[in-house]
Amino acid sequence: MPVSNAMLILIIAAMIVLILTLSAWYGTAFVEAYLEVKNKPREEMGWCHKHGMIRKKHMLPLGFMDVCPICYKKTLDQAGEIQ
Known about the structure:
The chain is α+β, with helices and mostly antiparallel strands. The chain folds into 2 domains: 1-40; 45-82, no CATH class. The chain has helices spanning 5-38, 69-82, and strands spanning 45-48, 52-55, 60-62, 65-67. It has a two-stranded antiparallel sheet with strand order 1-2. Strands 3-4 form a two-stranded antiparallel ribbon. A hairpin with a 2-residue loop joins β3 (60-62) and β4. The longest helix is centred in the first third of the chain and has 34 residues, at 5-38. The chain is elongated, with a radius of gyration of 29 Å.
């Protein structure tokens, strides 16, 4: 059964509408996600040479410097094994 030209044009038009609808939906989702992340409040961060960025409020203040809590716990565990 051959497909008429009108039917072929209708199928192509329906596919184009579907593609445009989906791309608009994904586009708005991407823009909303980008704006949500961009507008979030930032907090101070600390830096560990092994573990990278850590929240400043989680860093341990020892003396005049802040220490990574993960490194501090590993050091305490190693010190307990030595004794």
